Amino acid sequence: MNILHISAECFPIAKVGGLADVVGALPNYQKELGTNSNVVIPFFNNRFNQEHTFEVIFTGNLQLGETSYGFRILKLLNSTLGFDLFCVDITELLYTEYVYSNDDTERFLAFQIATLDWLLTLKEKPDILHTHDHHTGLIPFMISQSFRYKTLKEIPTVLTIHNAQYQGWFSHEKTFLIPSFDKKNIGLLDWDGSINPLACAIKCAWSVTTVSPSYMEELKLNANGLEALLSHESDKCVGIINGIDWNVWDPERDPKLIKNFSKTTVVSGKKANKKWLCEKFNLDKNKPLFCFIGRLVGEKGADLFFDIFKKSLKENTISILLLGSGHKETEQQLATLNSHADYNSFIGYDETLAHIIYAGADFLLMPSRVEPCGLNQMYALRYGTTPIVNSIGGLKDTVIDIEDGGYGICHDGVSIDKVTAAISKAALFYTDKKRFQKNSRSILSIDYSWSHSAKEYVQLYKSLKL
Ligand code: GLC
Each residue of 255-298: pLDDT tens digit? Predict the structure, then answer.
């Protein structure tokens, strides 16, 4: 079975968030189950693309309304990714240093049209088109409605929602950019008065998945305006928890770590990584180290970090290290904490540093208000770091509280007091060295790799091909 994943991001080529990690790992785990899963993404102006060689396998011209763009389909040569990587090169629109900008309608529409134009020419078509998020959300519509793509109509489409907050809205005035279709079906494109690619994909895809069972349930109550639609379409919706790539996230072999470790050497291994972090960031290595990695946005609870950190540092003997960037106001507010002896941060993103933090931290904070799946808690577990999470979405599905016989610290809801209380509880847990170290040792082998979830996807594909 040939599966084509169509996405805006794919690790390690272009990564903004967890979407990249999923698209970079899932195909390989599907391949182990016998499918031929490959990936197509836009061709961006980034380091990976500059340092690798691509072969041009197709050239064409696409029509975006009245404008015509030349495009090329590139295939990565000597791929060590495990799957075939195809890139859509539309230089004027997509060859940018960024993945997303403020107005992406034309960029991603052109990407989707080029992908479908190329598929039209293939003798052997994919058996399933697996689209991810709103950037590829018009594909299910175009292959079922646009006259141009009628030969692709029978290919089942799957949409995976990684985050329903972003829907790709654009105005009806731009409808002419979409390859022509029977206008009586315009309603499929619309939600609440504008063109809504995510809503459209929920309507038109054969199956809709999201990245955890709990998030699927939550979406029916809170989906940034799409609640009724998701409830209405619930028969074709399913939550499949993400996994993590155990080949990349392996404390025994990860080349990014200061010291590698296994289940038996977890205590000394984590100590060495923590020592390096504390020296680099001027923190006391004898205090429990609490870390946050991620975007500084409201969804992640970041607007409360300043107050949470200030209160927690006052009430407990702990250190805090933050890696991420986001809202400028939050960044500025947090910068005023830099003078505190037990706090430090790296504003920006650094994949190597992230790996060392997962390995060297004692606790990882994830007070997300919304978390469709969350991968960071799984990376933390894999590196023997105890997660502290708000019990929602994927966090609820993957972290069980120590008081319920589990291995993490959970709080219900996000407020300064609730998160601070969870941090205090963790600091207390840390003082029970024996119990704390036993926890680090056991969480390292909890299997959140893709092997289970990849099977669920393959079963889903098979059910669509029947
Ligand atoms: C998005 C979600 C995150 C999820 C990731 C991968 O970034 O916010 O929760 O883990 O996609 O599916």
Answer: 999 999 999 999 999 999 999 999 999 999 999 999 999 999 99
Phi, psi of 397 (to 5 degrees): -80, -15
Angle at CA of residue 291, ends 286 and 296, nearest 5°:
150
| Residue 419 structure tokens | 């998160």
Which pair of structure tokens corresponds to residue 381?
């577990």
Instruction: List alpha helices for 205-288, DSSP H.
Output: 213-219, 227-232, 266-280
Q: Kindly report the number of other CB atoms within 10 A of residue 171's CB atom.
A: 10
**pLDDT tens per residue, range 291-326:** 999 999 999 999 999 999 999 999 999 999 999 999
Distance CA 227, CA 240 (A): 19
Q: What is the helix (H) or strand (E) element at residue 430, kind and residue range?
A: helix 416-431
Among 211, 241, 390, name the best residue to mutate to test ligand 1's pocket (greatest count of ligand atoms within 8 A of Cβ). 211
Q: What are phi and psi of 270, to 5 degrees?
A: -65, -35
Structure tokens at 344: 């430090």
The alpha carbon of 163 and the centre of ligand 1 are apart by a number of angstroms equal to 6
Residue ranges and CATH numbers for the domains of the chain are: 2-243+451-465 (3.40.50.2000), 266-447 (3.40.50.2000)
- Is residue 209 predicted with pLDDT exceeding 80? yes
Residue 396 CB-half CA count within 13 A: 17
Atom of ligand 1 nearest to the CA of 215: 9
Give ∠ CA 320-414-366 in degrees, rounded to 5.
45
403: helix, strand or coil: helix
State the residue for tokens 């060859």: 95
Q: Do residues 45 and 95 touch, judged by C-beta distance below 8 A?
A: yes
